[in-house]
Amino acid sequence: MTSTPVAPRRSKISPERVQEFYDAVLDQLREHGYEALTMEGIAARASCGKSTLYRQWKGKPQLVAAALRAGRQGTIVAVDTGSLAGDLREAARIAGCTSGRDTRLMQALGHAVLSDEELQAALREALVGPELAAFDVMVARGVARGEIAADHPAVEFLPAQLMGVLRIRPVLEGRYADADYLVRFVDAVLLPALGLTPPGSPAGQAP
Questions:
Q1: What are the pLDDT tens digits along the chain (207 aa)?
Q2: At what angle do helices 15-36 and 60-70 cross, to 10 degrees?
Q3: Cβ neighbours of residue 60 closer than 8 Å, sequence gap 6 or more
């Protein structure tokens, strides 16, 4: 009788140990950049075998994306203030609270974020996809409440504008886009483009 091979199972690792792996990834990323980051170096920093990392994550892109996601202190996924204007302002506030750290880490990814397709796919799955889905939910609620039309032409550009200004302000002004800056950007640019006004504005909510 021929025995059926049993697929190897991932060993369980405590959340504390996983966080140690993520800390090692982010430390190495800050110090050396993505291209010089290796699974061997991460394993050495975290005092574990390289095989342990490969059992838990497919490879370097997936591990880096998971570490970046875990390092986020806030998420826009759960934002629901009761209005689209409020949701966008809260999303901006959350993004701005950690913009300096997040921007430095994204800069550490360097050229790879544009040229490495596997890294791009891992980042889209772990970071970009959930945020884009959150924007879609915000807009859908706004449409359902009658705040904007479903086919409003400005909707398509909301994520690119809000996320883009996070990355470009350090280049243009040498300063990170903090929460105050991003909320003011939403009030001055995004809401008028949608025909909305900030919550509490004397003009009220535009139809």
A1: 444 443 344 456 788 899 999 999 988 888 888 999 999 999 998 888 889 999 999 899 999 999 988 877 667 888 999 999 999 999 999 988 877 777 778 778 878 888 899 999 998 988 889 889 999 999 999 999 999 999 999 999 999 999 889 888 988 998 999 999 999 999 999 999 999 988 766 654 443
A2: 120
A3: 37, 38, 39
The model carries a pTM of 0.78
Cβ-Cβ contacts under 8 Å for 48 (sequence gap 6 or more): 21
User: How far is 46 from 104, CA to CA, in rounded Å?
Assistant: 22
All structural domains of the chain: 15-70 (1.10.10.60), 84-194 (no CATH)
